[in-house]
Amino acid sequence: MATNRTFTMIKPDAVADGNIGGILKMIEEAGFKIIAMKYTRLTTDLAGKFYEVHKERPFYGELVEYMSSGPIVAAILEKDNAVEDFRTLIGATNPAEAAEGTIRKIYAKSIGENAVHGSDSDENAEIEGNFHFSQYERF
Ligand code: DAT
Ligand code: MG
């Protein structure tokens, strides 16, 4: 299991607002190496599968609709302690609670439209990276 990798998406609101460059700059300056990256758009089916763990939660429908509403940037990132360090860099789910200087504090609009995804465990980082990328798309 690759404990030095995590998976991220720059979400539709951040892409639409022209924040891809700003967010990637923060990610690179924090010492993450980009292993795989693509500009793509999730269908509602794919977004539903990606967030299947949240199926029973009241915001699931809204989340799936939002995540398929426009293009995203998906990426696999590498760094020592990647999952935990990336969660620290992005900040709390709700930007109102996110620490100063975090990506969500700077770029997120709300708890739903919160600019970026970050895996919550090594196991999910592996699953989520495999969801978006083949072995031939990793460098
Ligand atoms: P995180 O993205 O910080 O891992 P999560 O896994 O609990 O947060 O939820 C996944 C996404 O679902 C989150 O990024 C935004 C959305 N979401 C979470 N809680 C929500 C809520 N109370 N209302 C609306 N959307 C929510
Ligand atoms: Mg999560």
Mind explaining what this structure looks like?
Helices cover 40% and strands 17% of the residues. The chain is an alpha+beta fold and 139 residues long. A four-stranded antiparallel β-sheet has the order 2-3-1-4. Helix 3 crosses helix 4 (60-67). The longest helix is centred in the C-terminal third of the chain and has 11 residues, at 122-132. The protein is globular, with a radius of gyration of 14 Å. The two termini are 17 Å apart. 34% of the residues are buried. The mean pLDDT is 97. The structure holds 2'-deoxyadenosine-5'-diphosphate and magnesium ion (MG). 2'-deoxyadenosine-5'-diphosphate binds next to loops.
Total of DSSP H or I helical runs spanning 4+ residues: 7
Give the mean pLDDT. Answer: 97
- Record the strand order, biggest sheet: 2-3-1-4
N-to-C SSE string, H for helix and E for strand: EHHEHHEHHEH
Q: Which molecules are bound in this entry?
A: 2'-deoxyadenosine-5'-diphosphate, magnesium ion
Short description:
Helices cover 40% and strands 17% of the residues. The chain is built from 7 helices and 4 strands, in the order βααβααβααβα.
Which key features would you list for this structure?
four-stranded antiparallel sheet; about 15% strand; alpha+beta; about 40% helix; binds 2'-deoxyadenosine-5'-diphosphate; about 140 residues; binds magnesium ion; 4 strands; 7 helices
